[in-house]
Every structure is written in C-alpha cells, then in structure tokens.
Amino acid sequence: MKKLQVKVGLILLSFLMVVTTPVLAAPNGNAKQALDNKIVKRIKVDNIYEHVSYLSEEIGSRAAGTEGEARTIDYLVEQFESYGYDKVNVHEFTFTSRGEEITSYNVEALKEPMKNHDTEQQIIIGSHHDSVAWGPGANDDASGTGVLLELARIYANTPTDTTIKFIAFGAEENGLWGSRRYAEAMSKEEIESTVAMFQLDMVGSKDAGDLIMFTADGKTNTVTDLGAAAGSRVSDIVPYSELGRSDHVPFHHLGIPAALFIHTPLEPWYHTEDDIMDYISKEKLHDVANIIGAATFQITRKDTPALEKSAVKPVPVDYDYEEPNL
Ligand SMILES: [Zn+2]
C-alpha cells in the first residue's frame, strides 16, 4: 500500500514538473540571483577552511589573555590588511575573572561606502575569535571567524552604499565581554545608524543540525527577514528561535536588530577538546557564507538601503519559529 502511494506521488510530481517548468524558469528568478551572485560566486570555501585550520590547528586554544589570543589578533589584523582595509581597529578592553584582571581585544575592519552613495547606515557582521581554554574551538568559533574573513575579503572590492563593520570579538566565552564592551562604547549616533547585526557562531560542524537564527527576544527582525529571504534564494529558508548566549545580545539590548546564526542541535564536541578540524564541514561553511553574503549584500548594495526599498524585490518569505533545540 505504501509503495503504491509513493509511485502515484512520483507520477503526479513528474506531471507537475513538466507543467510548471516554464514558470519556474522565468527570468525574474535569475535576475534576483544575479545580484546575490556578485558576492556568492566569489566565495572560496577553501579560504574559509584554511582560516579555520590556522586558528584551530596552527594556533589552537585562543582563550582571552593568552599567547594564543595574541597570535590570533596578529593573524586577523594581517588578513584584514591584506584585503586592502586601511582602517583596522584593535579595540583593547579589560574584564575581571575570578579576581584576576584580563586584557582582551576586538578586531574590527571598516568597509566604507561609496562617496556619492552613502546611506549613512551601517551593519555589523560579527564572530568571536576566542575559544574555550581547554580546546582548539574549530567550530566554536574559528568557523564563524573564517566566514567573517572571507566575506571581508570579497567586500573589500565590492561597492556598497552602507558601511560594514567586520568585528571578531574577544572574550566571548568568558561572558560576552568583547561585544559588551564594544556596545558600551557606541555613541548614540552609531547606535541609531546601525540597522542590522549578524552574528556567526558555530557554523561549520558536520555533526550539528541545521542552520537557525536566534534572536534574544524570540521575535523576527530585519536580520532574520534578510536571512530567511537570502536562504530561500541561495539555500533553504532558515527558521528562527529564541536564544541569547552569543555576541548578538548586547546589540539587541541597544535596540539594534540582531541575530545569531548557528547550527542546532549542537554537535557532541561543543566546548570539548575534540572541537577539531576533523569535524568541520566545507559544505556547511560554504552554505552559511552564501546565506550571510546574500543577506548582507541585499541591505548594503547601492539603492537597497532596506528590505522594503530594494530595487529588486527580496521576496520576503514566510519562515517558521522553532523551539530551541540545543
Ligand atoms: Zn561560541
């Protein structure tokens, strides 16, 4: 009985495909993706993979205040500068952990808009460069930092009408210190002009589940709208859910639309010494880079300051809430 049902379904499906193919091939679909392709086609997943490998294997543990962190900062600055960024800021901050004062750093590359097409808006793309002290943090969060670097490389030569701040935060594992210190230092004008914050944390594990967008309040916002729509164009529609626990939180508290992109359920290696390259998937890294590349370009490219004003309609999609499943 079941087999027969499947066969009937397949026949029906074949029929539908024949009938609907011309509609699906309408040029509108191609035009829509042509803009995404200005970023997506240039993503080289091997670059991302090499960053993850360098951070987790060549350096290893990158806990705040350690030699591993110092080497990480050097690497990030060197990479950003090699892409042509002349405004790379190393933001030093301190925090106290178990009675000890620790110094840590955020590293930020500033992508400026075209001179004559400046919306005077900005977005933040973030990750955290530190790991837990006892592990190499290949997925947590060398993966997000690798994607961040590759997108920064591509955007360095891409005209935009919106400022992009690429920020690798420090001391996330100690309690979101880097992003909290960064958010505290933002002026009123900076806060008001920041229209979206995309956080990439744990985006490459073979052994984790599917991509999800977490907001601190469990509500949709500009970032999740852009992420879901981009997913529908270049991958799959991305659902959303509610969770804090990463660097999107301090920006949410400032009223900035922010979301964490992560695969759930989490892999068994999470926060263990086995969070290593062996369990990193190039496909997953590439998929997330495509989605974030397409989502951020939609809001930063010329004449598309926001979702509703896009020259080429982003086709806002319906996307679902899922219960957090860690
Ligand atoms: Zn993390």
Describe this structure in words.
The protein is an alpha/beta fold and 326 residues long. Helix 3 (45-59) packs across helix 5, helix 3 (45-59) crosses helix 10 and helix 8 crosses helix 10 (282-300). The model is unreliable at 1-29 and 309-313 (pLDDT under 50). It has an 8-stranded mixed sheet, sandwiched between helices. It is globular and about 50 Å long. The protein is 42% helix and 18% strand. The structure holds zinc ion. Zinc ion (ZN) binds at residues 128, 140-141, 172, 201-202.
Q: Can you tag this structure with a few keywords?
A:
18% strand, binds zinc ion, 42% helix, alpha/beta, single chain, 326 residues, eight-stranded mixed sheet, disordered N terminus
